[in-house]
Amino acid sequence: MIKSSVKKALLSLIALILTLCMLSSVLVSCTPLHPISKTSFDWFDTVTTVSAYMSQKEFDKMWETLSERLDYYHKLFDIYNEYSGMNNLCSVNKNAGKSALTVDRELVDFISYALEIYEITGKKVNIAMGSLLRVWHEYREAGIGDPENASLPSEALLAEKAGKCDISAVKLDIEKCEIYISDEEVSLDVGALAKGYAVEKAAAELKALGYSGIIISAGGNICTVGSKPSGEKWAVGISDPNGGSSYPAIAEISDASLVTSGSYQRYYTVGTERYHHIIDPETYMPANYFVSVTVMADSSALADAMSTALFISDLESGKKMCEELGIEAFWIYADGKTEMTDGFPAK
After folding, report:
1. What is the pLDDT of residues 206-257, one digit of tens each?
2. Is the model's pLDDT at 336 over the cut of 50?
3. Other CB atoms closer than 10 Å to residue 326's CB: what's the count?
4. CA distance linking residue 307 with residue 294, whole number of Å
5. pTM of the model
6. Among 98-102, 180-184, 241-245, 260-264, whose mean pLDDT is lowest?
7. 272 — phi, psi (to 5°)?
8. Which of 44, 230, 309, 345 pairs with 191 at a CA distance of 20 to 30 A?
9. How far apart are CA 301 and CA 259, in angstroms?
10. What share of the chain is helix, strand, coil (3-state, %, to 5)?
């Protein structure tokens, strides 16, 4: 059975495809430039759809390369399952407080990037928040399974787990490709980074192989490789967090990424209040500044990380980070009001 979060992501992807169809007459062409699409449910607990302007033979070969890379990163970043012949993040977490593990170079590079993001975002995006996030995950799953008895974790429990989120416990030996977590109660959770990073790596490989005219959508993470054959940019509708059929904005991008973080897909209800999955490290509670934040950047990995960072930051602080990093953003408040940076490519 498909999880509700995956169903909602699928609906968003269908809306994206319909938007592309409406905005480009090229899409209805019967020429070889007619786009081919394919969808997978295999990676990062979400729906991934790829559309590309190429022949079926080229598409099949491209899909094989893309699938191989996304499957690899999905397994590498999995915190729940281990895989034969690989020390992944689940292995690293299980070995916390024991000894260093030798891992693939790709995992060392990723953790190194995550440590940089921690500093860039003013310590807002912290991959060592696994203990705290696991509590919210367990309460959310229980609440979804039994809505009448849904409850919130106690302040004491949250404070206790928040005390086990010290990122300095994560030790890297880059030369030896080793990772060690010095505190057995510190756990890594890379949900704010994994998809964007994996998609960026896969897209870069496709581009290096000469592919172009591709748009990848992985559960709200949009990455484009080149533009359409006509030279047009890709038009991507930003979903209405309140479920409306119209788009608050349509962004046009090429060789760039657009990533949205929102409170409207992964949540549960306690009483009449919704509690979503994006946790503010300062309050230990779901952030409530906005209901949706979309980031446009050249880097899919950076866009993914910053969509989370901006979601748990006030508008003024968020705009300052955008200016410093050279990225653009679009914010939606609960009342439907919107804000955007001057350079956000929106209609």
Report:
1. 999 999 999 999 987 999 999 999 999 999 999 888 877 789 999 999 999 9
2. yes
3. 10
4. 6
5. 0.88
6. 241-245
7. -110, 5
8. 345
9. 9
10. 40, 20, 40
Helix (H, G, I), strand (E, B) or coil at 56: helix
* Structural tokens at position 279: 């946790």
Would you place residue 282 in the very low, low, confident or very high pLDDT band (cuts 50, 70, 90)? very high
At residue 13, the pLDDT reads 47
Q: How far apart are CA 35 and CA 336, in angstroms?
A: 34
CA dihedral 57, 62, 63, 65 (to 10 degrees): 130
Q: What type of residue is 337?
A: K
- List CB contacts of 55: < 8 A, sequence separation 6 or more: 32
Our CA dihedral for 154, 160, 161, 162, rounded to 10 degrees, sits at: 100
Q: What is the CA radius of gyration of the chain?
A: 20
